[in-house]
């Protein structure tokens, strides 16, 4: 059995699979587990990571962005990208495949991104649940199956979900964003918000662009869409109720905004994920 490594007094805590992933350079590492915890601290590995989750939402934080990984989607984490993992509950199951990436490989593998899982990928990934640990190229039964997943990813992942938000560096901006996150159902008047947090409207507008690379309206819209995805997946709410909880009084406006960002209507998203959930 592998061991767990636990370090206390402010040091990181690492699960054995984090340490074990890169022990053999040419293997594909396979790990499926019920998390049983709410946090995996910041770490990195030389291999690229395919991450699929069941049973809840997962937030993955890098130094630059906070990614939102909903059910029935996978996240590709590029090699050497430092990241921490924050499940929405201890019941979340992570399904991980770690692939060695060569310089000649497709550019897809060098960019962190989130994509829907189609039926082919889902069946292949679930087939790997019978294996744990290093799968070597000489393993003629297992290796071709897991390698097929790697080969397929650039071909079937043309549609990337914009499920990431940049992380604020300015302390006052962090406080303002936290307030907005906790009150998404409210209407926000930009000028009033700026004054409440000690900015002039002009200086706050500049800070959003400088620190986050987007306007307040763009950030607020993305934040509302991410929250709506979470509510649609985790709560037994109607689309109307979800729209209201994230600050939309008009259902058509909510549906149109969702469609522009996610690529499908909220009602279609619920239906798609219900079907995939039953298949999974």
Automatic annotation (TrEMBL):
<dbReference type="Pfam" id="PF12833">
    <property type="entry name" value="HTH_18"/>
</dbReference>
<keyword id="KW-0238">DNA-binding</keyword>
<protein>
    <submittedName>
        <fullName>Helix-turn-helix transcriptional regulator</fullName>
    </submittedName>
</protein>
<dbReference type="InterPro" id="IPR018060">
    <property type="entry name" value="HTH_AraC"/>
</dbReference>
<keyword id="KW-0805">Transcription regulation</keyword>
<dbReference type="InterPro" id="IPR037923">
    <property type="entry name" value="HTH-like"/>
</dbReference>
<dbReference type="InterPro" id="IPR003313">
    <property type="entry name" value="AraC-bd"/>
</dbReference>
<dbReference type="Pfam" id="PF02311">
    <property type="entry name" value="AraC_binding"/>
</dbReference>
<feature type="domain" description="HTH araC/xylS-type">
    <location>
        <begin position="174"/>
        <end position="272"/>
    </location>
</feature>
<dbReference type="InterPro" id="IPR020449">
    <property type="entry name" value="Tscrpt_reg_AraC-type_HTH"/>
</dbReference>
<dbReference type="InterPro" id="IPR009057">
    <property type="entry name" value="Homeodomain-like_sf"/>
</dbReference>
<keyword id="KW-0804">Transcription</keyword>
